[in-house]
Amino acid sequence: MISIIIVVLATLGALFVLLAGIGILRMPDTYLRMAVTTKAATLGVGLLLGAAAVYFNDLSTTTRVLAIIVFILLTAPVGAHLMGRASYIVGNKLWEKSVMDDLEGKYSKSSVKDKKPAEPDSEEGSTIPED
Amino acid sequence: MTLEEYLYYIILPIVSFSILLVFIRFIKGPTISDRIIAVDLLVTIGIGIIAVYSVQTNQSTFLDIALILALIAFLGTVAYSSYIQKRKKK
């Protein structure tokens, strides 16, 4: 009975990790790849760690596994947000079929001036406007 | 098929194949942001491999390494994102 639970958890976790791998290879955009990294990989690794916790059936191991899962759940969105903000400021293009860009013109991109002339509402010198 | 054999012959090849896919993105990656995301995902999948391996070898001590690896991956992502904001564009 225990082994059936472990097998189900490990299989689901491995499938979600495989989904994350396929997603980061096939997604057309940096930001969509970041979404895959944040969600599918976190769920897959959490399920694999849950399989380990069920297998050992021990208080100290379960505490350790819960600490790892909570840490990943806390840090994956923070890291993805930092990376998305940094890559938007650096000037990575969105996918050309993206519907909307809410940050259009909010960040005066320093790398945009070799592709098109400077926008009129962008401030000189500062890359990040005060909000 | 025992649990150890199932983990060894089914789960670990699936996870290793996904590591291979992420590594292809790491090599191809058009921008440096894609490469940093790929490194982050590599370390995250490595935590999963450590979990499966600790079940397979019946050693719960490996999970400590997974905790430290998660910490280092987060610190690396924060540092990389800070540095690619600050670096001079060519």
UniProtKB/TrEMBL annotation, chain A:
<feature type="transmembrane region" description="Helical">
    <location>
        <begin position="62"/>
        <end position="83"/>
    </location>
</feature>
<feature type="compositionally biased region" description="Basic and acidic residues">
    <location>
        <begin position="106"/>
        <end position="119"/>
    </location>
</feature>
<dbReference type="GO" id="GO:0015385">
    <property type="term" value="F:sodium:proton antiporter activity"/>
</dbReference>
<feature type="transmembrane region" description="Helical">
    <location>
        <begin position="6"/>
        <end position="25"/>
    </location>
</feature>
<keyword id="KW-0812">Transmembrane</keyword>
<feature type="region of interest" description="Disordered">
    <location>
        <begin position="106"/>
        <end position="131"/>
    </location>
</feature>
<dbReference type="Pfam" id="PF03334">
    <property type="entry name" value="PhaG_MnhG_YufB"/>
</dbReference>
<feature type="compositionally biased region" description="Acidic residues">
    <location>
        <begin position="120"/>
        <end position="131"/>
    </location>
</feature>
<protein>
    <submittedName>
        <fullName>Na+/H+ antiporter subunit G</fullName>
    </submittedName>
</protein>
<dbReference type="InterPro" id="IPR005133">
    <property type="entry name" value="PhaG_MnhG_YufB"/>
</dbReference>
<keyword id="KW-0472">Membrane</keyword>
<feature type="transmembrane region" description="Helical">
    <location>
        <begin position="37"/>
        <end position="56"/>
    </location>
</feature>
<keyword id="KW-1133">Transmembrane helix</keyword>
Automatic annotation (TrEMBL), chain B:
<comment type="similarity">
    <text>Belongs to the CPA3 antiporters (TC 2.A.63) subunit F family.</text>
</comment>
<keyword id="KW-0813">Transport</keyword>
<keyword id="KW-0472">Membrane</keyword>
<feature type="transmembrane region" description="Helical">
    <location>
        <begin position="61"/>
        <end position="83"/>
    </location>
</feature>
<dbReference type="GO" id="GO:0015385">
    <property type="term" value="F:sodium:proton antiporter activity"/>
</dbReference>
<feature type="transmembrane region" description="Helical">
    <location>
        <begin position="6"/>
        <end position="24"/>
    </location>
</feature>
<keyword id="KW-0812">Transmembrane</keyword>
<dbReference type="InterPro" id="IPR007208">
    <property type="entry name" value="MrpF/PhaF-like"/>
</dbReference>
<feature type="transmembrane region" description="Helical">
    <location>
        <begin position="36"/>
        <end position="55"/>
    </location>
</feature>
<keyword id="KW-1133">Transmembrane helix</keyword>
<keyword id="KW-1003">Cell membrane</keyword>
<keyword id="KW-0050">Antiport</keyword>
<dbReference type="Pfam" id="PF04066">
    <property type="entry name" value="MrpF_PhaF"/>
</dbReference>
<keyword id="KW-0406">Ion transport</keyword>
<dbReference type="GO" id="GO:0005886">
    <property type="term" value="C:plasma membrane"/>
</dbReference>
<protein>
    <recommendedName>
        <fullName>Multisubunit sodium/proton antiporter, MrpF subunit</fullName>
    </recommendedName>
</protein>
